[in-house]
Design a protein that fits this description.
Bound molecules: zinc ion
Oligomer: single chain
Radius of gyration: 27 Å
Distance between the termini: 43 Å
Helix content: 40-55%
Number of strands: 16
Strand content: 15-25%
Shape: elongated
Length: 474
């Protein structure tokens, strides 16, 4: 079986076929850097991390682009409120986002595009849409996209035009538009924009880009210049971006290029707290740095997130987090045991085939991480049983290899408890010496060795199946 992914565009789980394999171009809508990203935002970024890592595991050569929205209504308002220019306000939050990303072990995108660095391509895109009369200038000096000129508008969100009209939010200041559904590509500068340095001169007037425009321009610029293409393999984001953000991205990009903008659209569900979507607006948000300050193991948060399929709402709770912590501790101890048992043996590559098969089957089925995780835990149980029964180091080395490969994707072992291979080899040697001393009746020597091992932060436990050890938590 090969990889199948749910596509919001078709509302089906479709076989995944990139444009030019093994390359996969992946665009993921990034944070708006007006404030700290909350863990609901990070749930989306973790789903994208899982996608990226599994594509790589499957042999694809992924190129990931993530944008940083550093100019929009919220960033401008926040900068004005703080009394600083835009970049001065957004830069610390951009750095904070990178720190939080690293803490949660999210692989960095290959390129982070800051919206303010792509004003030129945005202006070109607006001009192009004006030239082909899909866009128009209004009396208020802004440029709008004429939704009625794009036949397939509403296809991604599956709203037909009548529904759109009925459901459209009509703000009192939107009289300048020809049609209530039309959206701003370029917003005429207002005093607040000027105050924070968020206004640029263009042939169609002084102003700033609309949020939707930013993603189209940045995505197209990057894939054109790097790969000479105008179609992304995958475009991903949270479900709240389907409409209007992604719908508008399609309209802008395809309106200009005449080509499919993204072949595959993927959307991650919300994270909820007591049934309510986490958001800054509701005041129920928790940031990644809150978790870090509490000393939470990022592996536990990853485990909690991957325990729910990305297309289902994730209910966040402290109890869930505690349970996840217990699970990842168990995985860390299991890995330490494998390292010890494998010593420096050559891996028996047939060991662990079952895990590999089950893991792939689950992940190929629209990234079914909860099932993949279940496969890992039944593997842990089975392998522990075999180790208890005296399985040899070659097998242990084979199991370790397969286990680590699954962890390259899930990354849910506690890093601080992980034991370096040389330490493991040393512990194995010392345990053997201790066993020898005990056999010879030299209990003083055996106790001395135990003390030596303890001094390196290792806890030793004598079990009926022989001595077991683990690294004490730092
Ligand atoms: Zn976007």
């Amino acid at each position: 079986m090969s990889l199948r992914l749910y596509n919001t565009l078709t509302r089906r789980v479709d076989p995944f076929e990139p444009l030019a394999p093994p390359r996969v171009t992946l665009y993921t809508c990034g944070p708006t850097v007006w404030n700290f990203a909350h863990i609901g935002n990070f749930r989306t970024f973790l789903f994208e991390d899982l996608l990226r890592r599994y594509l790589e595991y499957s042999g694809y050569d992924v190129f990931q682009i993530m944008n940083l929205t550093d100019v929009d209504d919220r960033t401008i308002q926040a900068a004005a409120k703080a009394g600083v220019v835009l970049t001065k306000h957004t830069e610390p939050f951009t750095q904070a986002f990178f720190e939080d990303r690293d803490y949660l072990r999210i692989k960095p995108a290959h390129v982070y595009t800051r919206a303010t660095a792509y004003i030129g391509p945005m202006v070109e895109l607006v001009q192009q849409l004006l030239d082909c009369r899909i866009a128009y200038r209004s009396e208020d000096g802004s440029v709008y996209y004429a939704v009625g000129k794009f036949d397939t508008y509403g296809r991604l969100s599956q709203l037909d035009k009548r529904e759109l009209k009925a459901g459209a939010r009509v703000a009192s200041d939107e009289y300048a538009k020809d049609n209530v559904q039309d959206f701003a590509l370029w917003k005429a500068a207002v005093p607040e924009d000027e105050k924070v340095g968020a206004a640029w001169d263009t042939p169609f007037g002084r102003g700033r880009p609309g949020w939707h425009l930013e993603c189209s321009a940045m995505a197209l610029t990057e894939i054109r210049s790097r790969f000479g293409i105008e179609t992304l393999d995958i475009h991903a984001g949270g479900v709240d971006l389907i409409f209007p953000h992604h719908e508008n991205e399609i309209a802008q990009s395809e309106g200009a290029t005449g080509r499919t903008f993204a072949r595959h659209w993927m959307h991650g569900e919300f994270l909820t707290v007591e049934g309510t979507k986490m958001s800054k607006r509701f005041g129920n948000f928790l940031t990644a740095r809150d978790l870090r300050e509490e000393g939470l193991d990022p592996a536990a948060f990853r485990r909690l997130v991957f325990l729910t399929h990305y297309r289902q709402q994730l209910s966040f709770s402290d109890a869930g987090l505690r349970a996840a912590q217990g699970s990842v501790t168990r995985l860390g101890e299991f890995r330490d045991r494998l390292v010890l048992a494998a010593r420096t043996a050559k891996a028996d590559l047939s060991a662990g085939n079952e895990l590999e098969t089950q893991f792939r089957a689950a992940m190929d089925d629209d990234l079914n991480a909860p099932e993949a995780m279940a496969a890992v835990f039944s593997f842990v149980t089975n392998v522990n049983r075999e180790l208890d029964a005296g399985a040899g180091p070659e097998k242990a080395a084979g199991w370790l290899k397969v286990f680590d490969r699954t962890m390259d994707v899930l990354d849910v072992t506690p890093r601080k408890a992980a034991v370096a291979a040389d330490l493991a080899a040393w512990v194995a040697e010392r345990i053997a010496a201790r066993q020898q001393a005990r056999k010879a009746g030299d209990y003083a020597a055996a106790d001395a060795i135990r003390g030596e091992i303890a001094a390196r932060g290792i806890e030793l436990e004598d079990t009926p199946a022989g001595p077991r050890w683990k690294k004490r938590d730092a």
